[in-house]
Design brief:
mainly alpha
Length: 51
C-alpha cells in the first residue's frame, strides 16, 4: 500500500468517527439520523474494502 492509500483510509476513518459521534449525539429528529446513516454507510463500507 502506498502512502496515498494510507492517508485516504486515515481520512475516511476520521470522517467515520466524526459522523458516528454526531449520530450518537443527535437524538432530536429521525430525519437527521437517517441522513447521517446515508452518509455513514458508504464510508464504513469503504473502510471494510467492500465495493
Amino acid at each position: 500500500m502506498n502512502i496515498i492509500m494510507i492517508l485516504y483510509y486515515v481520512i475516511t476513518a476520521g470522517l467515520v468517527l466524526l459522523l458516528g459521534w454526531n449520530f450518537l449525539r443527535e437524538r432530536k429528529s429521525a430525519n437527521d439520523l437517517i441522513l447521517g446513516l446515508l452518509v455513514l454507510v458508504p464510508l464504513v463500507l469503504r473502510l471494510l474494502r467492500v465495493k
